[in-house]
Design brief:
It is a single chain. By secondary structure, the chain is an alpha+beta fold. It is built from 4 helices and 7 strands, in the order αααββαβββββ. It has a 4-stranded mixed beta sheet with strand order 2-1-7-6, with helices on one face. The protein has a 3-stranded antiparallel beta sheet with strand order 3-4-5, with helices on one face. The longest helix has about 70 residues.
């Protein structure tokens, strides 16, 4: 800054000397002096403007340098971060990451899978077996009434191996009634006060005395002929009940007591 001002003053002095040696008047010298002052002022203004511009340039340069330095630092930070990430990535490939076990609390709160409820098994019905047979007639066809010959089965079997449900308190008579109803077999019976029990008169349209004066129906349970009427004898699960047509008061079917 001082050099520029000094240069301007030297120029002004040079012009003054030239004017003096040229024989200029005092007025001219005054004008010259004014000119010199004006020139010096202009030079000063120009110098100050230049100084301001220089300061602005220096500030701009300083700001640019600072920004470049900041960018450089950011670039270094980014590179350092990438390097760290790559390092971590390499380590993760080599070293398996341990998985934290599920907390006991979380496992405890998970709802348990409901097991399918099995349908309650219905209790099996108690049953017994009943047979109805008139095969003794086949050996006494000459005694059988003529109108009944067409209804006797060829083998004498009316019902064989039929399982019937036995309920609490059932008698043999109850089982017979149920079996005939289920299989659509005719049956006829009366209550006999003398014996306090039902008396079977006819089954499958075969009645007493249809095949001789000693013919009729008798029964046995598990191979035994009871001494009471069928409605007085209790039926039990697993019993084998047989109603048999006899032509000789039971002797021909194994009932020695009646025989």
């Amino acid at each position: 800054m001082s050099k520029k001002r000094l240069s301007a003053l030297l120029m002004a002095l040079t012009l003054a000397v030239v004017m003096i040696f040229s024989g200029c008047t005092s007025d001219d010298n005054s004008a010259t002096t004014e000119t010199v002052k004006s020139t010096a002022t202009t030079e000063k203004t120009t110098a100050e403007g230049t100084t301001d511009k220089t300061d602005e340039t220096e500030n701009l340069t300083s700001s640019t340098d600072a920004q470049e330095e900041t960018d450089a630092q950011s670039t270094q930070n980014v590179k350092a971060t990438e390097k760290q990430e790559n390092s971590n990535s390499g380590n993760s490939d080599k070293t398996p990451v341990a998985t934290a076990p599920e907390s006991t609390t979380q496992q405890a709160t998970e709802p348990a899978t409901a097991k399918p409820t099995e349908a309650p098994t219905e209790p099996q019905a108690k049953t017994c077996t009943i047979n109805i047979n008139c095969s003794t007639i086949l050996n006494n066809m000459d005694k059988l009434k003529e109108e009944k010959k067409g209804i006797v089965p060829a083998n004498g079997v009316i019902l064989s191996g039929c399982e019937i449900e036995v309920q609490e308190g059932d008698s043999v008579y109850d089982v017979l009634v149920r079996a005939c109803q289920q299989n659509k077999i005719h049956m006829d019976a009366d209550y006999t006060p003398a014996y306090g029990s039902a008396y079977i008169k006819g089954i499958a349209n075969l009645y007493e005395r249809d095949c001789g004066s000693l013919s009729g129906w008798t029964y046995r349970v598990n191979g035994v002929f009871p001494s009471v009427g069928c409605s007085s004898y209790d039926a039990n699960e697993g019993d084998v009940i047989e109603f048999l047509y006899t032509c000789d008061l039971g002797a021909d079917v194994g009932n020695g007591f009646n025989g």
